[in-house]
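Hey, sorry to bother you again with one of my protein questions. I've been puzzling over a protein and I'd love to understand its fold better. Take your time with it, there's no hurry, and the full record follows here:
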Amino acid sequence: MAAFFYFSIFIPLSYFPLTEGRAIDYTAIAGCPNKCGEVEISYPFGIGEPRCFFKGFEVVCIQNIPYLPESNLQLLKILQGEVSINSTSFIAQTCPSPAPFGTEASRFLLPETSPYTISISNQFIAIGCSTTGGITENEVSWMFCSSDCPTKESVVNGSCEGHGCCTEPLPKMRKNLIIFIEGYQSSISNCSYGFVVEDGRYMFKETDLLDFDKTANISMNLEWSIGGSCLYQTGEPAHICGSNATCSDTAEGYRCKCLDGYGGNPYLNGSQGCQGEL
C-alpha cells in the first residue's frame, strides 16, 4: 500500500543520531522571536506577525517545536540556502514474510508555490537482503540500487556497498519524490527499507535489517530561494538584499550574501544587516 506526502506524513517513525549542519548566523527582525525551542530562526524566516517573515517563509512554533506552515514537517535547522527537516516518517518499508515478496512506496510532494525544492545534498539508501530500492520524480526515469546478503558474514557494519545496504546520490529534483522498496525472501530474515537522508548522516548497522523502523531518526535537506530574480526594474533592485550584500540568481529564484569582510543578515539593513569590516 502506498503512502503519500503532501506537506504531511503517514509512515511509522524510526531513529538514528543526527550530526551537526552548517547553520547560518543571521538574525531575526527586531522585535520578532528569534528562536523556537532550540532552533534559531532568522529572516527571511520568521514566527508570528507577517512583518516577521518574508512571504512563504513563515515558521509555526507549537509547544517549542518549529514546523513549516500548513504541515507537520518539523524544522531542525536553517542552513545556508537549505533547511534541514525531520523526515523520519518518510520511509518506504516492506517485510516479505509471510508473503514471498512485497513492494511499498512513499511519495513526497511539495506545493508548487512553496519556496522549497529537494536538495541534491541528500542520498538514497536501501536496507535489506534480496532488496531493490529506487527513486523517481516523474515515474518515467528511475534510479535503482540493489542489496543482497549471500551469507550472514557478507553483511558488514558501516558498509553500504550492496550487502545489507546500498546507496545512490540524489539526482536534481524539484518538488516531487517517489521512493519504492521491494524485498524478497532471503537466507537472512529481514525487512527492507528505503529512504532519503542528508549525505553522510547514516551509518549502516546489521541490526537495521530487523528494526530500522523502530530505531531511526532521519533528516533530509530542502533548498530554499526567494522568488524572483536579481534584475533591476526601473532603476530599482527587484530583490530584498540589504546594503553591503550581493544577490545571486538560482534555478528557483535568488539568495543574498554579505560582501567579503562583512557579517550579519544580508536580507536586512541597518545594524542587523551586513556590517563592518570583519
